[in-house]
Every structure is written in structure tokens, then in C-alpha cells.
């Protein structure tokens, strides 16, 4: 093969630090080839640059839409230096070889974040840049691809010290380049799906692009590493206003608290979470009273737990919460005075301000079998007025019924919740036997079970749970129904004079 000039093609939208990279390459003997915008920028910094149009012998066309898509450019990148047939084509067509490609793309993500219209979105879809990147990454054995300004220093250092970029670094940069183009394409798909109002929630192909938002303290256990990722076009829905670094478990627990807050709605409400499971839920006239109601359900389990509140935390609420040890407080906001109270009394307490308007439509869960996808919605409220009743209607128990139902819906299946005076008095969660869950809830509630509302997240397969409820003087039962023994369950309710509302909806949570 004839000797060739070492050559670097530079075509970047983000020009951060590119002049220093180009200077280093020039000093190492590389000819710099560039497209119009980048070429002008480098010339302004005193660098000698050859235009791509001069290299290809073909002008930019279609208003700049086509600049680098030419055999003289792509051939110089894709040519395999140890393939005789490739080298013969290089000689025959006088193709200038390219050894380094420096490229980043039109800022589609930033444009999409500005809620641009469809026309602007389409005009900011990069074509030539993606092609250059993929070509150079594919041919990494001979060509260095650089897509991230943070790698400029490494490239120059290795060229100076080794005479070339090492194969190990070229491999790493190639993988990084493929990740960049894959992410770019998935962001385009996501944004255009919204702009074109694509309504298929479960398409045949679901591109997912995730960017690391934070390194977490550790995973479920200290020996496990963990990180938090987010979709590029979506801002993180929370801000941490104080306290220690978040861990994997903190995020899972905080999410359970957010779901509890959303279930409670506009009322002054509180949910207390321990290991992603509610151990207390209540509504009240204000946040302090709701907190006291939730705490009374299981104060031992609440220790070191996560508090979720439906409204902005004020100073009085902060003073009350700061009197006990908790890991996290999650709320729509915190007053300045409340933040100062926590900083003074509980400096390590994590304060999470969560934007409750940010709700995902789809939940993806990775399993050993593959990814599961489902609509991410919680159980709706029962139809208290028009639902199927057995026995006497009890409209005065509606608030207690809703709290019990929401607590059962938030708890892990099988779940039973008892509520009285706007607060849970027992939450049985994660039982493999429903009758065992009823027995535990009644026993935990003790005397508070009398006159309470019992809610079940699933149907009663036998009337035995009704017998236990009757002995505890339960005032009202809510359950989905759907068992082949529903009639036997109804008969047991009539026998023991316990009203029952069939919600007609299951509220399992695994």
C-alpha cells in the first residue's frame, strides 16, 4: 500500500475543547479534514483545515443535509488496512484514508426538551454524523472514533506516547460510540412517538435509552453496587433537599411512599413505609394529625422507615417528624423553615421533594425470563354508592373504607388492612394465606379492630375469613369478589350481620 498522510476527520456540533484536540493532532502530523461549520471554527483558532468538499470532490447539497455521505469519505474510514481487495479499491479510486474520526451529533435531545414542533424535531435528526460514527466504530481495528470531549485528552496522550491510539482504547471508544448512536436513535423514537401521537402502549419493539443519573451508595446490601438511571428526555421527578446519599433501597422505599401519596390524593394524608411495605396510612385535618394516625398503626415498624406526605411540609409538621428517627421524608415540597428544622435536628435525614405530576404510563421490570411491561396504575376507588352490597349500606364508613382499601392496594399480596377513624389500625402484607392475613391483622389491631373496616386486595376463597371478622366485630368488609364461593361468603356476612361491598376489582401488588 502506498504511504498515506495520517488524517483526522472532525465534524462536531458540540465544539467544547475541539480546538485543543485538533491542535494536538496537527502537531502529531495529522491532516485535519472538516465540514463547513467545524472547519470555520478551527480556522478561526488558527488551524490549517481541509474541507470535506475538497476531499470528496463533491459540494455540500440540499442545504447542508448531505456533506459527508460520499464514497471518498466513507471508503477512507471503512477500508481495512490488511485486506488486499480494500486496498486495491483505495488505489484505484484514489481514496484518502482516514485514521481518526471525531464526531458528535445534532442536539436532538435538547431540541426535544424544548417541546419543539415536529418540523424542528425532524430537522435536528443527524444522518451523516451517525453514519460516520458507526463506520469508524465498525472499523475500530484501524480507525479511532471519538464521540465524547472527555476522551480528547486520552487520545492525544496516547498518540504522543505510543504513536497511535492503543487497540484497547479504540475498542472502548467504539463501544462508547455504538452506545451513543443507539441512545440517539431511541431518543428520536421516543420523541417522535409523542409528536406523532403513537398510541400503542405495547409495540413489537420498545427501544429504551437510559443515562446514569446518579451513583448510589450501595445496592440492597453493602456488597452490591448500584446506580440510578433515567430516560434522557425526562427530568428526574425529585430533588433531594437534605440528608445522606441515597441507596438502592432508599429509592425503592421512596417510590412506595410516592404511590401511597398518590393513592391518598388531595386529602391531608400520610403513609409510612418499611421495606417497600406500608405499616401505617391515615388521613386527617392536617399533616400532623394524619401522621399521628399513621404512626399509631405500628409505631415499632415505623422506626427507621420512610414517611410520605400528600402536602408541602411546614415547620410544625417538621418539628413533629424530627422527634423520631426516619430514613426519608417524601412530599410534594418543603417550606424553607421545615428544611432548617430538619438540618438542625436530623441532618442525615433524606428530604425528597417529588413532583407528583410525573407519572409513568409503563412499568418495565427485568426478570430472568425477560422484561415484563405493564400499565403503571394503582387500583381505583371502589364505587361506594353504586357497587354491589351485601347487607346494610354504611355510607358513614366511606372514609375508613377508602383508607383500608388504599392501604391493602399498596401492601404486598396477600394483603388485609383494617381502618378506623381515618387511619389504619393493622396492615397484614405478603401473606401466602389470606385467612392467615386476616387473623394477623385482627390480632395486631386488638381492641381497635372493633368497629373497623376490613379491606382485602383479593377475593375470599372461603367464608372462614368472615368468621374471624365477625368475632372481631368488624363493621364493614371490602373485597373484590370473583371466587366460586362468593355466595357462601355472602351468606356468612348475612349470618353475622356484617355489611360487605364487592369492589369488582383486584388490587394485587407483587
UniProtKB/TrEMBL annotation:
Coiled coil: none
A Pfam family the protein falls into: AICARFT_IMPCHas
Pathway: Purine metabolism; IMP biosynthesis via de novo pathway; IMP from 5-formamido-1-(5-phospho-D-ribosyl)imidazole-4-carboxamide: step 1/1; Purine metabolism; IMP biosynthesis via de novo pathway; 5-formamido-1-(5-phospho-D-ribosyl)imidazole-4-carboxamide from 5-amino-1-(5-phospho-D-ribosyl)imidazole-4-carboxamide (10-formyl THF route): step 1/1
Source superkingdom: Bacteria
UniProt keywords, alphabetically: Hydrolase, Multifunctional enzyme, Purine biosynthesis, Transferase
Catalyses which reaction(s): IMP + H2O = 5-formamido-1-(5-phospho-D-ribosyl)imidazole-4-carboxamide; (6R)-10-formyltetrahydrofolate + 5-amino-1-(5-phospho-beta-D-ribosyl)imidazole-4-carboxamide = 5-formamido-1-(5-phospho-D-ribosyl)imidazole-4-carboxamide + (6S)-5,6,7,8-tetrahydrofolate
GO molecular function, one term: phosphoribosylaminoimidazolecarboxamide formyltransferase activity
GO cellular component, one term: cytosol
Biological processes per GO annotation: 'de novo' IMP biosynthetic process
Database matches in SMART domains: AICARFT_IMPCHas (SM00798), MGS (SM00851)
EC numbers for this chain: 2.1.2.3, 3.5.4.10
Domain MGS-like: 1-147
Domain notes: The IMP cyclohydrolase activity resides in the N-terminal region.
Family: Belongs to the PurH family.
Protein name (Swiss-Prot/TrEMBL): Bifunctional purine biosynthesis protein PurH
Name of encoding gene: purH
Amino acid at each position: 500500500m502506498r504511504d498515506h498522510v495520517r488524517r483526522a476527520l472532525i465534524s462536531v456540533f458540540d465544539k467544547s475543547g475541539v480546538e485543543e484536540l485538533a491542535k494536538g493532532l496537527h502537531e502529531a502530523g495529522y491532516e485535519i479534514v472538516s465540514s463547513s461549520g467545524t472547519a470555520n471554527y478551527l480556522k478561526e483558532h488558527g488551524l490549517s483545515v481541509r474541507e470535506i468538499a475538497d476531499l470528496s470532490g463533491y459540494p455540500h447539497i440540499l442545504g447542508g443535509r448531505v456533506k459527508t455521505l460520499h464514497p471518498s469519505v466513507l471508503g477512507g474510514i471503512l477500508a481495512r488496512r490488511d485486506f488486499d481487495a480494500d486496498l486495491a479499491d483505495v488505489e484505484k479510486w484514489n481514496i484518502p484514508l482516514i485514521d481518526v474520526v471525531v464526531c458528535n451529533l445534532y442536539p436532538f435531545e435538547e431540541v426535544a426538551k424544548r417541546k419543539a414542533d415536529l418540523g424542528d424535531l425532524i430537522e435536528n435528526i443527524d444522518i451523516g454524523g451517525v453514519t460516520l460514527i458507526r463506520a469508524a466504530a465498525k472499523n475500530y481495528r484501524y480507525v479511532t472514533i471519538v464521540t465524547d470531549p472527555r476522551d480528547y485528552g486520552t487520545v492525544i496522550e496516547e498518540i504522543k506516547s505510543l504513536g497511535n491510539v492503543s487497540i484497547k482504547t479504540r475498542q472502548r471508544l467504539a463501544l462508547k460510540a455504538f452506545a451513543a448512536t443507539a441512545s440517539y436513535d431511541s431518543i428520536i423514537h421516543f420523541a417522535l412517538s409523542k409528536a406523532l401521537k403513537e398510541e400503542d402502549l405495547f409495540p413489537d419493539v420498545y427501544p429504551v435509552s437510559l443515562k446514569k443519573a446518579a451513583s448510589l451508595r450501595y445496592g440492597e446490601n453493602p456488597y452490591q453496587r448500584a446506580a440510578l438511571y433515567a430516560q434522557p428526555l425526562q427530568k428526574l421527578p425529585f430533588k433531594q433537599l437534605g440528608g445522606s446519599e441515597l441507596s438502592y433501597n432508599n429509592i425503592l422505599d421512596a417510590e412506595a411512599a410516592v404511590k401511597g401519596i398518590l393513592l391518598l390524593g388531595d386529602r391531608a394524608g400520610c403513609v409510612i413505609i418499611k421495606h417497600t411495605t406500608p405499616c401505617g396510612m391515615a388521613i386527617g385535618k392536617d399533616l400532623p394529625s394524619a401522621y399521628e394516625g399513621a404512626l399509631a398503626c405500628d409505631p415499632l415498624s415505623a422506626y427507621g422507615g420512610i414517611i410520605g406526605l400528600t402536602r408541602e411540609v411546614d415547620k410544625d409538621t417538621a418539628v413533629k417528624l424530627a422527634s423520631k428517627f426516619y430514613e426519608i421524608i417524601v412530599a410534594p415540597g418543603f417550606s424553607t423553615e421545615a428544611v432548617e428544622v430538619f438540618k438542625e435536628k436530623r441532618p442525615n435525614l433524606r428530604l425528597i421533594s417529588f413532583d407528583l405530576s410525573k407519572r409513568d404510563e409503563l412499568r418495565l421490570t427485568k426478570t430472568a425470563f425477560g422484561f415484563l411491561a405493564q400499565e403503571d396504575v394503582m387500583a381505583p376507588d371502589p364505587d361506594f354508592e353504586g357497587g354491589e352490597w351485601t347487607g346494610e349500606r354504611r355510607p358513614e364508613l366511606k372514609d375508613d373504607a377508602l383508607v383500608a382499601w388504599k392501604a391493602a392496594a399498596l401492601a404486598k399480596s396477600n394483603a388485609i388492612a383494617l381502618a378506623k377513624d381515618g387511619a389504619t389500625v393493622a396492615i397484614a402484607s405478603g401473606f401466602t394465606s389470606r385467612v392467615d392475613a386476616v387473623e394477623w391483622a385482627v390480632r395486631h389491631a386488638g381492641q381497635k379492630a372493633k368497629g373497623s373496616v376490613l379491606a382485602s386486595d383479593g377475593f375470599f376463597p372461603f367464608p372462614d375469613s368472615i368468621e374471624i371478622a365477625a368475632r372481631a366485630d368488624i363493621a364493614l368488609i371490602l373485597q373484590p369478589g370473583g371466587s366460586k364461593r362468593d355466595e357462601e361468603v355472602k351468606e356468612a356476612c348475612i349470618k353475622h350481620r356484617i355489611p360487605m361491598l364487592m369492589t369488582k376489582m383486584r388490587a394485587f401488588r407483587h
